[in-house]
Amino acid sequence: MSVLDPLAARYATWLGLPAEETALPEASPEEIRAMPVILRLEKAEPPSRTALLEAAAIAALAVCLDERARPGGEWHEPVHDWVSGHIRKVARRARGAHWVAAQEFPGVTVSVGGAEVRALVPGRVVDVPKEISRLQISGSDLPADEPGPAPDDLPLLLLNPEVAMTVGKAAAQVGHGTMILASLLGDDELTAWAERGYGCAVRTATVAQWKQLHPGDDPAAAWRERRVVAVRDAGFTEVDPGTVTVLAQWR
Q1: Which residues, 6 or more positions from 28, have their beta carbon under 8 angstroms from its beta carbon?
Q2: What Enzyme Commission number(s) does the record list for this chain (predicted)?
Q3: According to DSSP H, which parts of the chain are helical?
Q4: Nearest CA to 175 among 152, 196, 198?
Q5: Given a cut of 60, is residue 25 above it in pLDDT?
Q6: Which H or E run contains 71?
Q7: For FRET with 38, which of 14, 108, 115, 122 sits at 20 to 30 Å CA-CA?
């Protein structure tokens, strides 16, 4: 049994919902849960955008599949409760002493190409510690870079080429992508991915590539035939409800 099972069970239904229903809150305001995702953005030496997004995609999944999130583990209940509703993430930026302080809270830090991200164990938004809640959400952005072709042997996360997102928003979306992907994999595939540290490649799709891979109205066939899943946003920030922000492909 995986903590991601509720996500797998909801996947096809979620894609088929009318756009306005994807934005409906699933809990009262005081019970809304989210995963804090802390992006290290040092002023003097900011990371590349692609590396930061890849670190964010890995970190979110690493928390969910950590042994402490398994049944009986100390993280299982908060992770399970979060995955069972909207998988909200709140990306915040930190540097210097604030980044160091964030390491004291339960979670996983991932480094990719000099970029660092720490995903924390999710919980109720009203309970977020002040050391985390004071970290800024807005203003988290980095210039586009040119990472080159994606490796053929890594799962691929494609950003929607026609939807503008800040790096904070994109970080949350690629984290959704790895989680949905992992929820649909078999045990052997998941074990093999874990042995590679849940490595993945993040790229912006071309318009043609997006149209070719998009699940359309048949997500089951897209997964069966092309091993592709879509991240469909609830529209709480930056994008309209129902927007497909990321396509994730198992390769």
Answers
A1: none
A2: 3.1.1.29
A3: 5-16, 19-22, 49-65, 76-83, 96-102, 130-133, 167-184, 187-195, 207-213, 219-226
A4: 198
A5: no
A6: none
A7: 14
Among 179, 187, 136, which Cα is nearest to 155's? Answer: 179
Task: Say if residues 20 and 232 touch (Cβ distance below 8 Å).
Answer: no
**Which tokens go with 10?**
């909801």
CA separation (Å) from 10 to 116, 134, 183, 216, 222?
31, 33, 10, 17, 16
| Tokens linked to 215 | 């699940």
Would you say 103 and 40 are in contact if contact means Cβ atoms under 8 Å apart? no
The percentage of the chain sitting over the pLDDT mark of 70, rounded to a whole number, equals: 92
Q: How many of the other CB atoms lie within 10 Å of CB of 148?
A: 9
Q: What does DSSP assign to residue 37?
A: E
For residue 159, the SS3 value is strand
Dihedral over alpha carbons 147, 151, 155, 160 (to 10 degrees): 40
pTM: 0.93
Residue-wise pLDDT for 90-116, tens only, equals: 999 999 999 999 999 999 999 999 999
Residues 6+ apart with CB under 8 A from 26: 85, 86
Q: Are 57 and 199 in contact (CB under 8 A)?
A: no
In the predicted model, what is the mean pLDDT of the chain?
91
List pLDDT tens digits, range 115-152.
Answer: 999 999 999 999 999 999 999 987 668 999 999 999 99
pLDDT of residue 22: 47
d(CA 7, CA 16): 15
